Each structure stands twice: as structure tokens, then as C-alpha cells.
Amino acid sequence: MVHAPILKTLPCDLWLYVYMEKAIQVIIVSLPPEIQGLAADNNFKIIYNMNVKTATDNENKPKATVKNLQFIEKLDQLIDIAEKEEESEEGSPVQGRSSGDLLTLRVGYIERYDWYDTIFEENGKYGTKDVTGKVILPAQYDGIGELCHQIYFGKLPRVAVLNGKCGLVLPDGSGKALTDFEFDSMSYMIILPYFKVKMGEKYGIIRKDGKIIVPCILDEVCLPLGHCVVFKANGKYGLIDSWCGDLYVAPEYDNIEIVDMEQPYTMTKDGVEGVINEKGEFMTLEESLDYEDYLVGEYNPDF
């Protein structure tokens, strides 16, 4: 079960994939009185369909405005209130609406608009602005990388291009670079706080603050699995565990098996199956039976 506080942070398409649904239809949604005025200003429709979209669909969506952002901020306040009331034994949902109802309303409303950065040009150089018109990247770059969704990824550093190379830049209009402009490509790994980078034919992984977690020595970087990223180099597998202080497990394993997203990953090395503890040490399955601390890949609510 995915809880409401987590859903509020996920893009609509990911939220839908979690429930293994291709579409959700919400009928007869009643707005709380506190936001009816904003809803009217933004032409909110009571009946709507919400589908998994592709990036190209944004071309057909109206650009989000300051009023749209204010609407979402008000919804967030109401969701927080509803969640606190639901945790209380004597509490009741806001105006009779649960936090789940409000979250469904929020996700559907966000899907109606284009919340991505806008590119602008000055003197032959490029920068970006958010939906409020605030400068995110000053116009001093030859190109712009992936455009960010303000609601879901607004605080992420941005990818910019100088002299044909990519670098990571703070999203505060200062133009302060977090990395050198030395990568051939750079892309954000959704959900986890990492960017996949490429130099020549090799890949690496950096953190969103620019710190290099894995240098460009990898042949392949797999999609994030839970809170871990699995990668491959020279025919061997390794991983990073974001829950364990960016724990780096070197690519020296013949196989990594993930049976359950809440169980430790099974690592195979020289024909021996085992797991990795929080120190990065390999333990056989037998050795791990009485181990009480964290094992890489398992679910731990304390993290």
C-alpha cells in the first residue's frame, strides 16, 4: 500500500503505475469552500479523466500560471490538515473529505497544465524560467538539458550545456555550477537523488549536490529499484543504496536477484549466494540468518 504523503510527491504517471492502472476516472468531485474561488479562477472542471501522459502531451496543455500554483499550495495545506485530523482519534476529514480524496483532486488538477520550465534567449545564450517567471538558469548557456516539472522536481539542480558539455547548476538564478562542464550527457534518475552521467562510452552516477558517487567506469546503469540503483561494469554487477548513506557496492558480483522489494537483495559471487550488510560486507545466506542490522535492499522504516 502506498500512503498519501508519498503519493503527494510523485508525478501522476508514477502514481498510476504504482496501482497498476492505465487510467483513473474521477466523477463528481466537490471542492472545499476554501478553494472554490481559486478553482473558479482556474476553470476547474468537476468531471475529468486522468491518464498516463507522454512528454509530448504538454504541447497541448495550457501553461501553468501563478494562480494555478496558488491553487496547489492551498490544496497542500488542506491535505496536511486532513492527514493530521485523520491521525487523531477524534478528528474528521476537512469538510467531510479525506486526504486521499484531496490528493486525487490535486493529481488530476496538476495533470491539466504544463508545469515545465520555459527556455528563453538573450544575446544568443539560453536560460530557463519557472511558471511564475522567476529565472532558474540565467541566459549564459549554449543549451539546456532536461526541463523540470515545477511541482515534482522544482528544487532539483538543472542540466545546462557549455561548449558541447553538460554540467549541473543550482536552480536559484545564480548560475553557480555544482559540477564541471565535462559530461557528454546527464539525466535525472526519477525518485532517487542521483543523476546518470556519461563520458565517452562509460557511465557514472553523481548526487544532486554534484558529488561523484560512481565515476564514469560503468557499462550500464539500470533503472532504480526501490531505493537502490544497480549497475554493470566488465560483466559484473554492483549497486548504490541511497538509504545507507549512498553505500557503494563495487561491481564484482555475477548476479543480483531481487525477489521482493522489501527483502534484501541476493548477491552471487563465485557461485556463492549471499547479502550485503550496511557496511558493504558480503555475508553468506547462512551468516545473515541471525544478523539483526540492515541488509542492502530491504525495507527499513527507520531510514
Model description:
The chain has 303 residues and is of the alpha+beta class. The protein has 3 domains: 4-111, no CATH class; 116-218, no CATH class; 220-303. 20% of the residues lie in helices and 32% in strands. It contains 7 helices and 20 strands. The strands form 6 sheets. Strands 9-10-11-12 form a 4-stranded antiparallel sheet, with no helix packed on it. The longest helix has 22 residues, at 66-87.
List its traits:
303 residues, alpha+beta, 3 domains, four-stranded antiparallel beta sheet
Short overview:
The chain is an alpha+beta fold and 303 residues long. The protein has helices at 4-7, 12-18, 36-41, 66-87, 99-111, 150-153, 285-288; strands spanning 23-26, 48-51, 118-122, 125-129, 135-141, 143-144, 158-162, 165-169, 185-189, 194-199, 202-207, 212-218, 220-221, 228-233, 236-241, 247-253, 255-257, 266-269, 272-276, 282-284. The radius of gyration is 22 Å and the shape is flat.
Topology:
Layout (H helix, E strand, L loop, with lengths): L3 H4 L4 H7 L4 E4 L9 H6 L6 E4 L14 H22 L11 H13 L6 E5 L2 E5 L5 E7 L1 E2 L5 H4 L4 E5 L2 E5 L15 E5 L4 E6 L2 E6 L4 E7 L1 E2 L6 E6 L2 E6 L5 E7 L1 E3 L8 E4 L2 E5 L5 E3 H4 L15
Antiparallel strand pairs: 1-2, 3-4, 4-5, 6-7, 7-8, 9-10, 10-11, 11-12, 13-14, 14-15, 15-16, 17-18, 18-19, 19-20
Helix pairs in contact: 4-5
